[in-house]
Specification:
It is built from 9 helices and 8 strands. The chain is an alpha/beta fold. It has a single domain, classed as 3-Layer(aba) Sandwich (Rossmann fold), CATH 3.40.50. Strands 1, 2, 3, 4, 5, 6, 7 and 8 form an 8-stranded mixed β-sheet that branches.
Length: 278
């Protein structure tokens, strides 16, 4: 706990990201990854294999954009640095260890890919209208965009934040959640280059015998494209939950992802990003 506290003091992050617990969550994920090292290893390798498979679609290897890079636990950073002229790692929080590398062309970009979290922090009583960002759509030398184990998590922290603030109608929260996802999927689909989506398809709770007793769909049925590959991630084994229940995620990988079901989202002006693009 002392180590995590000191890390939170030393890790740079926007004020709103700290207050909304994005920083604490990033630190907690690193700690959880250590405790569940053996349980998470297959998922991390599957993710890296999916990234290598996705890169096969690249005609050139100039710039790769990785969204949701975090601590790079599931990112084959050395290989990406070797294969591409420039690697852009995008996340709200970049843990200190993720910056300890030798490559000058690997660049950390602090960016809220939804563009609306600071707005939500400033005014939790009003759910922001989501629109599709065009972040990096006009950068001509991008040859690959990877959304890695991020999409299903995009609404999680905002919903936790709102739960401790102003009450909102359940229907409005559902629509807000879906629009966050749709905006991200539409943004990813807007690139002319190769792209890949890697994220949770289902969240499952298992009993002591390994039987699934509860299933949740974090993507709200929004994706119709078939997965290129799927695997299980033992995200919280019993030794982690401290109960007789465990949790696992069914993870999907979509190569050259394209969203086709884009209802319930009003596109309009570009989101504010509070970021200097590289």
């Amino acid at each position: 706990m002392i180590t995590e506290f000191l890390t939170s003091l030393l890790t740079p992050a926007p004020k709103w990201a700290k207050r909304m617990e994005f920083l604490n969550e990033a630190i907690a994920i690193e700690a959880r990854a250590k405790r569940c090292r053996d349980d998470w290893a297959p998922h991390q390798q599957h993710t890296k294999d999916a990234i290598f498979d996705a890169i096969k679609a690249c005609d050139q290897h100039r710039t790769v954009v990785v969204v949701g890079s975090g601590a790079c636990l599931d990112i084959p950073l050395a290989e990406l640095a070797d294969m591409f002229e420039r690697v852009l790692l995008i996340d709200i929080v970049h843990p200190l260890k993720s910056k300890r590398h030798r490559w000058n062309h690997v660049i950390h970009v602090t960016l809220d890919i939804t563009g609306q979290m600071e707005t939500l922090y400033d005014n939790p009583g009003k759910l922001p209208e989501m629109s599709v960002p065009d972040i990096y759509h006009d950068v001509s030398d991008i040859d690959m965009v990877l959304s890695v184990n991020l999409a299903s998590q995009l609404p999680v922290i905002p919903l936790k934040y709102l739960a401790h603030k102003k009450p909102h109608d359940e229907h409005d929260l559902e629509r807000f959640t879906k629009n966050i996802l749709i905006a991200h999927f539409t943004w990813l689909s807007g690139f002319a280059c190769a792209s890949a989506l890697i994220c949770d398809k289902t969240w499952e709770t298992l009993d002591v015998s390994g039987n699934v007793i509860e299933t949740d769909d974090p993507l709200h049925g929004l994706i119709s494209q078939k997965t290129t590959n799927e695997w299980y991630w033992d995200v919280a084994p019993r030794h982690e939950t401290g109960t007789e229940f465990s949790r696992r995620n069914r993870v999907g990988y979509w190569s050259n992802f394209l969203l086709t079901d884009s209802d319930d989202l009003t596109t309009g002006q570009n989101m504010n990003s509070n970021c200097t693009y590289v």
